[in-house]
Amino acid sequence: MAKHKLFNVAVVGATGAVGVQILRLLEERNFPIAELKVLSSARSAGKVIKFKGQDVIIQEAKPESFDGVEIALFSAGGDVSRELVPAAIDRGVICIDNTSAFRMDPETPLVVPEVNVDKINEHKGVIANPNCSTIQMVHALKPLYDRYGISRIIVSTYQAVSGAGVSAINEMLRQSKDILETGSTKPDILPVSSLPVKHQIAFNAIPQIDKFHESGFTYEELKMINETKKIMGDDSIEVTATCVRIPVVYGHSESVYVELKSDFDLSEVRSLLADAPGIVLQDNPAEQVYPLASESAGKNETFVGRVRRDLSNPRALNMWIVSDNLLKGAAWNAVQIAEYIAIEQE
Amino acid sequence: MAKHKLFNVAVVGATGAVGVQILRLLEERNFPIAELKVLSSARSAGKVIKFKGQDVIIQEAKPESFDGVEIALFSAGGDVSRELVPAAIDRGVICIDNTSAFRMDPETPLVVPEVNVDKINEHKGVIANPNCSTIQMVHALKPLYDRYGISRIIVSTYQAVSGAGVSAINEMLRQSKDILETGSTKPDILPVSSLPVKHQIAFNAIPQIDKFHESGFTYEELKMINETKKIMGDDSIEVTATCVRIPVVYGHSESVYVELKSDFDLSEVRSLLADAPGIVLQDNPAEQVYPLASESAGKNETFVGRVRRDLSNPRALNMWIVSDNLLKGAAWNAVQIAEYIAIEQE
């Protein structure tokens, strides 16, 4: 067997909800690593993590940190990416960025490998990982787009708190405990940590993820609208989104109504979904089988069910799409891109 | 002041989640009651409840229970209504039925007072109370229907466990406690108590409420589709629904996309909603104000927010509609109907 090329890899934001999963996946997938740099904010620098049984000391992420690095995976927030991705690119690093910093930059490929893997090679140093709620939706819709075309998507989301980070997970669990024990609680992080108004997430549904745009849509909703068009490479797709946070730890669920451009056969739709890479069709109403956030947690796949022809529009489908927002929605999609780059450079 | 007529009233299903609220509202509203009969299954018969400070003994509901009764409010399940409503009608009782037993019967008015109060007088002994998720939606959409017309509705729901009764509330709270304390739990009631497969509701989202129809829609979804057309009195409205249970105790939330038949001005839409009876407009994105299930609990109103023009279809609106499913969604709507009947017979 030929000797494989090994890469110097950096992970930025190693202690965050996504960074932890990126490191786990690099280990589990046996990613061809020569040297691993684990980078974070000054606050976490000096801490030690285990990687393949070895201690790795977390270092503060600085421009010089990227000297000698070949592939870097960023998930430390948009501000960190805006500052350090250009510095890494200057040092010849290929960056995979999990923040929104470069997603809509026309020069930056926005990639879900099952949808548009061919775009990776057009990169100018950075490939953007899409928003979690967008990834699972376009992943599930791609086989239908290719076969029938898509004219319109109307999606309402049921998003897990882990999308807002470890502190939001802890807040939701603490609030749940408070309410079970005392009947009340005090919110302090969600819906948006940087905004003044806080709302209870335990035993509730908050129709706000990210800040509001002047259109009345949130930026999370606009991400779903704009990123879907960019990833599909089709600005003619009309997309409407309502993004809602619910008290789930891992796994985003989505209620999706999609209008196709041509007639379809429902059994063919099911076959297309069942055969698509990374998609698991869980769709048997008679046995009460459909995707559940609780069962998607920890898995890399996107799960699809409740597939049914609309009763008022015969060219429309309704479906329920679930995936672990930290995995296919973030870390796994990023590691898939890294694996593609590694294979291309073999 | 003229002496008001008093009524002999029966409440059937007095120990259920809705029955308890009906009794509370009859007391709070000072409903003109001569004699109150509190009826239930044999299992609860003999228990004592308080009504206006007086002890009332729960009696087993039988056909003879309705002798001398003038108004009866039923919320003991469809089977009980199918058996006892005809017996009550035979005895001259006006029945207000909160189950699905008579809702789609062409002879039976299906009433949300703010939408079609005029239908009450067409009754043949029974007036049906619509499904909880339908009531709040048609309540909020009625002022828009009257002004602009509605061609299509696409709704995804975020429904509270109290819609499945007291046992489902207890199950969700128990499961939450189990998971917080031990990391796992065992489901035994939801999604549908009479079906074999059970799914975890705590920290999850279950896309099944009621059984499945052969179309792939659930009966809960079909109720929203069919009841909306009947209440609005317009079979041309196209409705699509996806109904989802989430871990909330009280208050259904709904993400609603609605296509209007004519152009609209967004400020006029807000005025129409703000001025509509029983509607509270909570819509100020700059201040992060929007309806929340947690704040709707215990209130009779329907709350509307996130009102925004669709970005792809200028004749479409998106909105977020929240109401306490046990109150406007059940008990309060039924008591409103009872109050209308009482006033008509003054």
From TrEMBL, chains A, B:
One of its GO terms (biological process) is threonine biosynthetic process. Its EC number is 1.2.1.11. It is an enzyme of class 1 (oxidoreductase). The active site is at residues 132, 252. Substrate binds at residues 159, 245. GO terms for molecular function: aspartate-semialdehyde dehydrogenase activity; NAD binding; NADP binding; protein dimerization activity. It holds the Pfam family Semialdhyde_dhC. Residues 8-123 form the Semialdehyde dehydrogenase NAD-binding domain. It catalyses: L-aspartate 4-semialdehyde + phosphate + NADP(+) = 4-phospho-L-aspartate + NADPH + H(+). Pathway: Amino-acid biosynthesis; L-lysine biosynthesis via DAP pathway; (S)-tetrahydrodipicolinate from L-aspartate: step 2/4; Amino-acid biosynthesis; L-threonine biosynthesis; L-threonine from L-aspartate: step 2/5; Amino-acid biosynthesis; L-methionine biosynthesis via de novo pathway; L-homoserine from L-aspartate: step 2/3. The keyword Signal does not apply. It comes from the Bacteria. NADP(+) binds at residues 15-18, 43-44, 162-163, 325. Phosphate binds at residue 103. The keyword S-adenosyl-L-methionine does not apply. Homodimer. Belongs to the aspartate-semialdehyde dehydrogenase family. Catalyzes the NADPH-dependent formation of L-aspartate-semialdehyde (L-ASA) by the reductive dephosphorylation of L-aspartyl-4-phosphate. This is Aspartate-semialdehyde dehydrogenase. It comes from Paenibacillus albiflavus. The lineage of its organism: Bacteria, Bacillati, Bacillota, Bacilli, Bacillales.
